[in-house]
Backbone:
């Protein structure tokens, strides 16, 4: 793998670790305020899928012996824009952002930032990432398999989240 691929890969790992720390902090705060976790049965599959994404990304890149590949500027721009959008989602939800479904009885449904326009913008961003990142790495099998797995998981996750959010109203 090229140097820029390693830098991007390490950036992604660092970013995910930071996000998990934020999610844990928010989870503790929400539960201390009376927050209730819902639909946790499927959560392990998100963890497994997103962990395997990085394993497959690296594995496919090594198997294909991807060296001296140029950076696709368009895909890089899409990736960078998706990261800005991701930060907007997290900032808009504030202490309510989490990787789990946790509802806080009595809390208002967040309807600012990207949530004014789309109900689950973070899931769209993750889908874009699961396509764009492997394309940047020229790992085409990963670019097909993981978006499909993500969409299958969302068929479970979004209805669970909608049920939980309906209890807030």
Residues:
């Amino acid at each position: 793998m090229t140097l820029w691929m390693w830098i991007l890969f390490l950036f992604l790992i660092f970013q995910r670790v930071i996000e998990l720390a934020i999610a844990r902090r928010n989870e503790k705060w929400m539960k201390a305020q009376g927050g209730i976790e819902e639909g946790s049965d499927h959560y392990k599959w998100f963890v497994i899928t997103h962990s395997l994404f990085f394993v497959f990304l690296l594995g496919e890149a090594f198997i294909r012996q991807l060296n001296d590949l140029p950076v696709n500027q368009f895909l890089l721009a899409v990736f960078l824009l998706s990261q800005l959008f991701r930060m907007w989602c997290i900032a808009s939800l504030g202490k309510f952002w989490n990787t789990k479904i946790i509802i806080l009885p009595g809390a208002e449904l967040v309807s600012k930032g990207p949530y004014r326009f789309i109900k689950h913008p973070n899931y769209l961003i993750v889908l874009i990432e699961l396509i764009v990142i492997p394309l940047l790495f020229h790992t085409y099998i990963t670019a097909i398999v993981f978006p499909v797995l993500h969409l299958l998981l969302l068929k479970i996750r979004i209805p669970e989240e909608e049920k939980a959010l309906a209890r807030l109203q």
Observations:
- The chain is about 70% helix and 5% strand.
- Strands lie at 36-38, 101-103.
